[in-house]
C-alpha cells in the first residue's frame, strides 16, 4: 500500500472569510515549493471555483466529489489541472446526497482505500454539514479562517465536533484572513490581526503563524471578462499576500514532515483491524455450524459455502447455529403455526406464497414462562417482520414422541428443540431460537456483511423485548 496522504481541511461556518481563496492558492503554492509533491484539491461547496481555476480545456469531468460517497474509485475521479494540481470536479446535487449520509468517517474510509499520496486539500461549505464533518474527521490539519469576532465565535462548533468524536484539537488552527492592514487601534493591540489572535488565544485556540491580508488586487483576480480565476502566485506576486501564502505553505510542509502518522494511515490501520476482527468472528460462527439439518440430520453443509438449506437458525446464547432444510421447517410451520391437518406438497401454491412471505420474516421459538420458571411441555412460536415487529404468535405443545404402529418416533419439533432450546436432561435452557430464510445454495450470505448485521440486530431487539 502506498504512503497515505496528509489531509488539510479548510473550514468555517461563516461565509465570506476566504475559504476557497485559501484552499485553491494553498494548493498552488505547495506545488510550487515542492514540484514533485502530488497535491489534490476538491471542494464540497457548489460554486465551482475549483473547476474554473484548474480545469484544462472544456472536457467532460471524470466524476465528481459526490462519487466519493457512492462507491467511486478515487483514482478514477482525479484529473490533472492547471499548475500541476490534481482536482476532483465539484457537484451541484450534494445537498440531496447528504440526506442519506450519516457516518462522519465515510470520506476517511474512502481515502484510506485509495492510492492518493502527497497532500489533499478540502474546501468546505460555510456550514457544519455532513460533508464538512467528514472533511474534518479525515484531516491532519484543519485551518479555520477568521476575519472578525462572529467568525471567531463560530469556531466553537468545530471544536465541539472534534471533542465529540475523539479528534485531537491539536489538528485545529485558526488563521486570520482578509485582514485590512490599514486599520490601526490605540492600546495594546495595534491592528485587527493582533486583536483576533489575542481573542483566539484567550479562548484556548491555537493559530497559524501570520495572516492573510485583505487585498483589492487579489480580490480582482476572481473578476474578469474571461470568467477565470487567477492565482496569487502568477498574478499577485507584487502583493503582501504572495509572501503570506508562501509563509503559510512552508508551515504546512513543515507540519506534514513532522507528522509521525497521517490520519488516513490510522484510519487504514483501524479498517484492517476491524476486517481481521470480522473475519475472526466469521470463522468462529462457521466453526459452530452443524453440518446437517437440525431437524432431520440431512447433510447440508459440505464446504461451508454451498448448501441446499433454506433457513438459518441460531440460539440466543450463540452456542448453537445451523441450517434447516426447507421441507423440514416449512412442515413445522404449516403443522404447528398454521395448524394445517393436511400435508402441503412442494408444488402446492400455499407453499410458494409462504416462501415469498418468509423472505421478509423472522421466526422465533422459546419456552413458555410458567410459575416463575419455564414450561417444558410448551413452546411459543413467533413471527416478526424485518423491523422486528411481531406479526403473530402461537402457543404450541412440545410432544417428544408421536406413536407409530410398532415403535415411537421423536417429533420434528422436539428434535429441533433438543438441539437448540433444551439441555441434556430435556429441561428448557432459557434461550430462544431465531430463524431466518436464506438464499438456497449459499450459506455464507447470513454469516457476513449486512445480512449478518441485520440478523444480530433482530436478535438483540427480540431479546430486549422479552427481557422487559
Secondary-structure map:
Blueprint lengths: L5 E5 L8 H15 L5 E5 L5 H6 L19 H4 L1 E2 L5 E2 L6 H5 L7 H7 L6 E5 L6 H8 L3 E6 L2 H5 L1 H10 L7 E8 L12 H11 L9 E2 L2 H5 L11 H4 L4 H18 L5 H26 L22 E5 L5 E4 L1 H12 L11 H10 L2 E10 L2 E13 L4 E8 L3 E3 L4 E3 L1 H9 L12 E5 L11 H19 L1
Parallel strand pairs: 1-5, 1-6, 2-4, 2-5, 6-7, 7-8
Antiparallel strand pairs: 3-4, 9-10, 9-16, 11-12, 11-16, 12-13, 14-15
Spatial extent as radius of gyration = 32 Å
CATH architecture field of the largest domain: 3-Layer(aba) Sandwich
| Strand numbers in spatial order across the main sheet | 3-4-2-5-1-6-7-8
**Considering DSSP H and I runs of 4 or more, what fraction of the residues is helical?**
25-40%
User: Number of DSSP strands?
Assistant: 16
Structural class: alpha/beta
The low-confidence runs, each spanning 5 or more residues with pLDDT under 50, are 303-307
In CATH terms, the superfamily of the largest domain is P-loop containing nucleotide triphosphate hydrolases
Overall form: elongated
Report the average pLDDT across residues. Answer: 89
Count of the separate structural domains: 2
Distance between the termini: 49 Å
CATH topology of the largest domain: Rossmann fold
**What's the total helix number?**
17
β-strand percent reads: 15-25%
CATH class of the largest domain: Alpha Beta
Task: Let me know the largest β-sheet.
Answer: 8 strands, mixed
Amino acid at each position: 500500500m502506498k504512503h497515505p496522504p496528509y489531509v488539510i481541511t479548510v473550514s468555517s461556518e461563516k461565509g465570506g472569510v476566504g475559504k476557497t481563496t485559501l484552499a485553491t492558492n494553498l494548493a498552488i503554492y505547495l506545488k510550487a515549493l515542492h514540484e514533485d509533491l502530488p497535491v489534490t484539491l476538491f471542494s464540497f461547496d457548489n460554486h465551482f471555483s475549483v473547476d474554473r481555476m484548474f480545469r484544462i480545456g472544456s472536457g467532460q469531468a471524470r466524476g465528481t466529489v459526490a462519487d466519493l460517497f457512492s462507491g467511486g474509485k478515487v483514482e478514477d475521479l482525479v484529473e490533472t489541472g492547471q499548475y500541476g494540481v490534481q482536482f476532483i470536479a465539484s457537484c451541484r446535487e450534494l445537498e440531496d446526497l447528504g440526506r442519506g449520509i450519516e457516518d462522519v468517517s465515510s470520506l476517511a474510509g474512502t481515502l484510506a482505500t485509495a492510492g492518493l499520496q502527497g497532500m489533499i486539500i478540502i474546501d468546505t461549505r460555510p456550514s457544519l454539514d455532513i460533508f464538512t464533518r467528514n472533511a474534518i474527521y479525515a484531516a491532519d490539519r484543519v485551518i479555520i479562517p477568521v476575519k472578525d469576532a462572529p467568525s471567531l465565535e463560530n469556531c466553537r462548533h468545530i471544536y465541539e465536533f472534534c471533542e465529540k468524536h475523539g479528534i485531537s484539537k491539536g489538528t485545529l488552527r485558526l488563521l486570520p484572513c482578509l485582514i485590512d492592514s490599514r486599520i490601526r487601534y490605540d492600546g495594546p493591540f495595534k491592528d485587527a490581526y493582533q486583536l483576533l489572535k489575542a481573542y483566539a488565544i484567550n479562548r484556548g485556540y491555537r493559530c497559524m503563524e501570520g495572516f492573510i491580508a485583505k487585498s483589492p488586487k487579489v480580490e480582482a483576480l476572481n473578476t474578469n471578462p474571461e470568467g477565470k480565476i487567477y492565482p496569487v502566485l502568477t498574478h499577485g506576486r507584487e502583493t503582501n499576500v504572495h509572501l503570506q501564502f508562501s509563509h503559510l505553505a512552508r508551515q504546512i510542509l513543515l507540519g506534514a514532515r513532522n507528522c509521525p502518522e497521517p490520519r488516513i494511515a490510522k484510519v487504514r490501520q483501524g479498517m484492517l483491524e476491524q476486517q481481521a476482527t470480522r473475519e475472526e468472528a466469521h470463522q468462529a460462527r462457521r466453526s459452530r455450524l452443524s453440518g446437517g439439518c437440525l431437524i432431520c440430520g440431512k447433510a447440508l453443509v459440505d464446504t461451508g459455502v454451498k448448501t441446499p438449506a433454506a433457513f438459518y437458525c441460531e440460539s440466543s446464547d450463540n452456542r448453537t447455529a445451523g441450517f434447516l432444510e426447507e421441507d423440514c421447517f416449512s412442515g413445522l410451520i404449516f403443522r404447528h403455526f398454521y395448524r394445517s391437518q393436511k400435508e402441503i406438497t412442494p408444488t402446492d401454491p400455499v407453499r410458494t406464497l409462504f416462501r415469498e412471505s418468509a423472505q421478509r420474516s423472522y421466526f422465533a421459538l422459546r419456552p413458555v414462562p410458567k410459575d416463575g420458571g419455564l414450561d417444558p411441555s410448551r413452546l411459543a412460536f413467533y413471527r416478526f417482520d424485518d423491523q422486528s415487529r411481531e406479526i403473530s404468535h402461537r402457543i404450541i405443545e412440545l410432544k417428544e414422541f408421536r406413536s407409530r404402529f410398532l415403535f415411537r418416533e421423536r417429533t420434528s419439533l422436539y428434535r429441533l428443540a433438543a438441539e437448540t432450546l433444551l439441555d441434556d436432561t430435556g429441561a428448557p435452557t432459557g434461550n430462544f431460537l431465531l430463524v431466518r430464510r436464506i438464499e438456497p445454495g449459499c450459506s455464507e450470505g447470513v454469516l457476513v456483511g449486512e445480512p449478518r448485521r441485520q440478523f444480530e440486530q433482530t436478535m438483540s431487539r427480540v431479546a430486549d423485548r422479552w427481557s422487559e
